[in-house]
Design brief:
Elements (H helix, E strand, L loop, with lengths): L3 E11 L32 E9 L4 E6 L3 H16 L7 H11 L1 H4 L3 H21 L3 H4 L8 E8 L4 H13 L4 E5 L7 H19 L4 E5 L6 H11 L7 E2 L7 H9 L5 E3 L6 H9 L5 E2 L3 H4 L1 H14 L11 H9 L6 E3 L11 H5 E2 L8 E2 L11 E2 L7 E4 L1
Parallel strand pairs: 4-5, 4-10, 5-6, 6-7, 7-8, 8-9
Antiparallel strand pairs: 1-2, 1-14, 2-3, 4-12, 11-13
Length: 391
């Protein structure tokens, strides 16, 4: 039996070139504020956290987190790592409960849960490496031959640019696409027309035999969404994502109950119980937790079971290997979100610059290797010159 010997967290600060933001490329929760400037700035992830859990035999499992990495690092180093060190990594359920309950007064949402997620993901990677099996095999095995993915980089832009990007993705075999809305309540009726123009333009390129989804990223409100839904109905969206701020469960439920377009969400939920509440309140028709926010793989598997019992499909937020392994092992997870390798813009792209081994989509699918133990990733040294790393 091996024990957890040490836990090392590092913050990776991107100092390399970035793609500058464009106006109206994505609505977001800050749009309602009156001050001027880049409302999306706090939703960019130009920092990332890695968490390495080392066993006594020297085997290392790798976890990660994207939200507020410098604060999460402090939480891991001071609070969570001491709770896990010395434990058997295969007691992952006990370790999870220990971290959750010993910090419950302040850690059950937000920063605390993100820190737990990073450690938990690393522990699952460690367990896979110790037994020589990929994580999805530990979760129940291969539930599908390969994973369908949807192309998720269609941020709002000029119509011609969006159509060109959609056409390029279509040429690469994608059967599903997600675009972003660039306009919200503050932009009035003119903004509504701009939104509709772009949905129509993308649908024109991809046709009617491929799925199209659209994301408001919490930049709308219930009234605005009620007005938009009938206008969007003709475009047969598979779902409308995060139309209102994450805490407004009643608003989600009201919009979902209209039955015009399925409502999705959960990316900004931080617990098993929080996701249960979304499901039981019929607030979402598609659940989109993020494994490195919701409590890691241990929590995600519990959520998957609850969702499956309610016949709510789960499509985890973002790509990344921890999400792919869960999708591969669960029949209730029909596909994965996928961001292609790209210059650093929002920050999802940092995963490709920090890690090696991430699965690459081909013809609209990606595959996981039965022979790669753990999550199948390692920390890369190829782009170190573009990072400042805080130990």
């Amino acid at each position: 039996m091996t024990k957890i010997k040490s836990i090392r967290s590092r913050v990776w600060n991107w100092v390399g070139p970035t793609v500058p933001p464009k106006a109206h490329f994505c609505t977001n929760a800050s749009d309602i504020l009156w001050e001027k400037g880049d409302a999306m700035s706090s939703f960019r992830f130009h920092q990332w956290l890695t968490c390495e859990v080392e066993a006594q035999d020297g085997t290392v499992g790798i976890g990660n987190a994207a939200l507020a990495p410098s604060v999460v690092k402090k939480a891991i180093d001071d609070w969570y790592a001491p709770l896990a060190i010395g434990e058997d990594p295969f007691d992952c359920a006990y370790i999870w409960e220990k971290m959750y309950r010993r910090t419950h007064a302040w850690g059950r949402r937000g920063i605390g849960m993100v820190a737990m997620s990073a450690i938990d993901i690393a522990i699952w990677d460690l367990m896979g490496k110790l037994v020589g099996k990929p994580v999805f095999k530990l979760l129940g095995g291969r539930a599908k031959e390969k994973i369908p993915v949807y192309y998720s980089k269609l941020y709002a832009d000029d119509v011609d640019a969006m159509q060109a990007e959609a056409q390029q993705a279509k040429n690469h075999g994608y059967q599903a696409f997600k675009m972003r809305f660039g306009y919200g309540p503050k932009d009035g009726m003119a903004g509504m027309r701009e939104n509709l123009k772009r949905v129509e333009a993308v649908r024109e390129v991809i046709g009617w035999d491929r799925d199209l989804m659209a994301d408001a990223y919490m930049g709308w409100n219930v009234d605005y969404t009620r007005r938009m839904l009938p206008k969007l109905e003709r475009y047969e969206l598979r779902w409308l994502e995060e139309p209102v701020i994450g805490d407004d469960v009643a608003g989600y439920a009201e919009l979902n109950a209209l039955g015009i377009i399925p409502i999705s969400g959960g990316e900004h939920e931080f617990s098993v119980i929080g996701c249960k509440d979304l499901i039981e309140n019929k607030a979402v028709s598609v659940l989109q937790y993020d494994t490195n926010r919701v409590g890691g793989i241990t929590a995600a598997q519990k959520i998957n079971a609850i969702a499956e019992a309610h016949q709510i499909p789960v499509i985890p937020h973002a790509g990344q290997m921890h999400n792919y392994h869960l999708t591969m092992a669960n029949s209730n997870c029909p596909m994965s979100e996928y961001f292609p390798v790209f210059d650093v813009e929002i920050g999802n792209e940092l995963f490709y610059y920090i890690f090696e081994g991430d699965a690459e989509a081909r013809d609209g699918f990606l595959q996981l290797d039965d022979a790669k133990p753990g999550l199948g990733i390692s920390i890369s040294d190829r782009h170190l010159s573009n990072f400042e790393i805080n130990e």
